[in-house]
Design brief:
The protein contains seven helices and eleven strands. The chain is of the alpha/beta class and 257 residues long. The chain has two domains: 167 residues, Rossmann fold (3-Layer(aba) Sandwich), CATH 3.40.50.1000; 70 residues, Hypothetical Protein Ta0175, Chain: A, domain 2. The strands form two sheets. Strands 4-3-2-1-9-10-11 form a seven-stranded mixed beta sheet. The termini are far apart.
Length: 257
């Protein structure tokens, strides 16, 4: 793990590279409710230009469902791993490998909704993932964490609890951003490229570790505590400025013939 004050800003990637992007807290500022965020046309244009310059080697790696991502960024339908890699769209505008909601997770969601009956807590049902957002009610984070940890004892094996900056999630063990990045790196558009991954939360640490193993560039946004990332950017504004610099052609993004 890195000691945060010594983390440098990211270098400009050298040679052909691939870009993997978390969304909330990385490209967009967090909001109390996930549906409250807004994507402007400038960000859509920036992503479209980057995707073109990278010959398609750009993908979202997010805890959101791909359907939610498409709603945010419409009309763009870029490559994406949703639900921490439980859903995939491997080609732009291509089909989505979706994930359904198991009955036991649906029942648990109902129980927690009844327990945390507060307008300030948002319980998000994302197929096999249950997310409890407490950004507007930080005093309820501990109780929300207790509820999902207790649920592990009666759920089938294969689930884990992931605590975040402003909420907690219950998810299958196979939901991991690092695994999603590895899957994309095996695709023709991404092969033989240097992976660059930007994220802001504990759920991104697995992705940072994977990118480091590939000798890529791992970047944590507004880091708090220790991180596996080797670089940092202070906030969403710095992320967008850095990506814009890359988009202006100060790199060699494509694989040379």
């Amino acid at each position: 793990m890195s000691i945060l004050p010594n983390l440098p800003a990211p270098d400009v990637p050298q040679g052909p590279w691939a870009l993997f992007l978390d969304i909330d807290g990385t490209l967009l500022e967090h909001a109390a409710h996930p549906d409250a965020v807004v994507v402007n046309d400038a960000l859509r244009m920036l992503l479209a230009r980057l995707e073109t310059q990278l010959d398609g080697a750009l993908a979202f790696i997010t805890g959101r469902s791909i359907a939610a991502v498409d709603h945010l960024f419409q009309p763009l339908r870029l490559r994406a791993a949703g639900l921490y890699g439980l859903e995939h769209r491997l080609a732009r505008d291509g089909p989505v490998e979706a994930a359904g909601e198991p009955a036991d997770i649906a029942a648990l969601a109902g129980e927690i909704e009844a327990e945390l009956a507060s307008a300030d807590v948002y319980i998000e049902r994302k197929g096999p993932i249950l997310a409890i957002h407490t950004r507007a009610a930080p005093h309820l984070l501990q109780r929300a964490t207790q509820l999902v940890e207790q649920a592990l004892e009666r759920l089938p094996a294969g689930y884990r609890v992931l605590a975040g900056n402003a909420g907690v999630e219950l998810m299958p063990l196979e939901a991991a951003k690092g695994a999603a990045i590895r899957r994309f790196m095996a695709e023709p558009a991404f092969k033989e490229r240097c992976p660059v991954f930007l994220g802001d939360d504990t759920s991104d640490e697995n992705g940072f570790e994977t990118v480091n193993e590939m000798n890529g560039i791992s970047i944590r946004i507004k880091p708090q505590g220790q991180t596996a990332a080797r670089h940092k950017l202070a906030d969403v504004g710095e992320v967008l400025a850095w990506l814009d610099t890359l988009c202006r052609g100060r790199f060699r993004a494509t694989v040379q013939p």
